[in-house]
């Protein structure tokens, strides 16, 4: 910063007045323009509802998931890593289960393949041979695979926002070095099911029937292109008479990455009964 000195004309007191040019500029513009919060978007609900379409335009992305479950004073977190193709509605995740309550045993990671209407899982456990896959019809699950797989299908997480209502703009923040806009609201599962892409409509329709309430609180973070970067849904449902609270977080990044999903051969799919 350079201070410029100006000599006052005779008759105005004489002497020398030291003036900081930067201060003059700041005074001229009110001194606060650089720290003002960006203007809120004119239609917060519209921005959130359009996030799924923005992801389809993006094509693919990497995905990280975290699902926190709390019941009867016990809280566990299941984490997943993988990728998703928002045009084909297919993806893959490597899901890591937590240790047992005693912390004594490690579970093998579960490989999940996400497809329209079906979830494929390897290393499912519960009597399933280690080299076999389990196929689950997501259109008949009570939660539409929003919870069952231990990770919310990234496509379903985005499509659920089509039913957004009571949306407010929280403000601008930074997520992994990217400026994003933070929105908060409630998603209506039934409304989302009617507006969802055909490939995911059946699963969301099943969830609309299975959950005790259609209202799902959420926090969504959109980048400058309207793409969903992070979403946190809070689900609540009844399991054998106990109330279960689930917070599911999906992070999307690395847009344009190659996502390859190869379905297992029919001979490798377990034909026995599996408890979901």
Subunit arrangement of the protein: single chain
Chain-averaged pLDDT = 83
Indicate the percent of residues in helices. Answer: 10-25%
The description of the largest β-sheet is: 11 strands, antiparallel
Strand content: 35-45%
**Sheet/helix structural class:** alpha+beta
Give the overall shape: globular
Instruction: State the end-to-end distance.
Output: 67 Å
- Uncertain runs with pLDDT below 50, 5 residues or more? 1-35
Strand order of the largest sheet: 8-7-6-5-4-3-13-12-11-10-9
Radius of gyration: 26 Å
Number of helices: 6
| Number of strand segments | 13
Query: Could you spell the SSE succession in H and E letters?
Result: EEHHHEEEEEEHEEHHEEE
How would you characterize this protein structure?
This protein is of the alpha+beta class and 276 residues long. 17% of the residues lie in helices and 41% in strands. The chain is built from 6 helices and 13 strands. It has an 11-stranded antiparallel β-sheet with strand order 8-7-6-5-4-3-13-12-11-10-9. The protein has a two-stranded antiparallel sheet with strand order 1-2. A hairpin with an 8-residue loop joins strand 1 (3-7) and strand 2 (16-20). Helix 5 (189-195) packs antiparallel against helix 6. The longest helix is centred in the last third of the chain and has 13 residues, at 198-210. The radius of gyration is 26 Å and the shape is globular.
């Amino acid at each position: 910063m350079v201070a410029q000195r100006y000599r006052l004309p005779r008759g105005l007191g004489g002497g020398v007045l030291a003036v900081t040019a930067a201060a003059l500029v700041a005074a001229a513009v009110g001194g606060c323009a650089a720290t003002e919060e960006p203007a809120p978007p004119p239609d917060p609900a519209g921005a959130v509802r359009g996030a799924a379409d923005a992801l389809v335009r993006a094509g693919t992305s990497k995905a990280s998931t975290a699902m926190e479950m709390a019941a009867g004073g016990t809280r566990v977190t299941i984490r997943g890593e993988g990728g998703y193709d928002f045009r084909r509605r297919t993806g893959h995740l490597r899901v890591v289960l937590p240790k047992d309550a005693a912390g004594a045993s490690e579970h093998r990671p579960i490989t999940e393949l996400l497809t329209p209407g079906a979830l494929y899982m390897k290393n499912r456990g519960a009597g399933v041979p280690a080299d076999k896959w389990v196929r689950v019809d997501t259109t008949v699950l009570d939660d539409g695979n929003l919870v069952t797989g231990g990770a919310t299908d990234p496509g379903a997480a985005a499509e659920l926002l089509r039913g957004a209502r009571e949306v407010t703009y929280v403000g601008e923040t930074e997520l992994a070095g990217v400026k994003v806009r933070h929105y908060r609201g409630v998603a209506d599962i039934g409304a989302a099911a009617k507006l969802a892409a055909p490939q995911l409509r059946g699963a969301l329709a099943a969830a609309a029937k299975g959950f005790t309430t259609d209202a799902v609180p959420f926090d969504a973070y959109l980048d400058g292109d309207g793409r969903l970067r992070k979403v946190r849904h809070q689900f609540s449902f009844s399991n054998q008479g106990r109330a279960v609270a689930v917070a599911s977080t999906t992070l999307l990044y690395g847009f344009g990455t190659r996502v390859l999903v190869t379905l297992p051969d029919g001979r490798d799919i377990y034909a026995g009964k599996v408890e979901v």
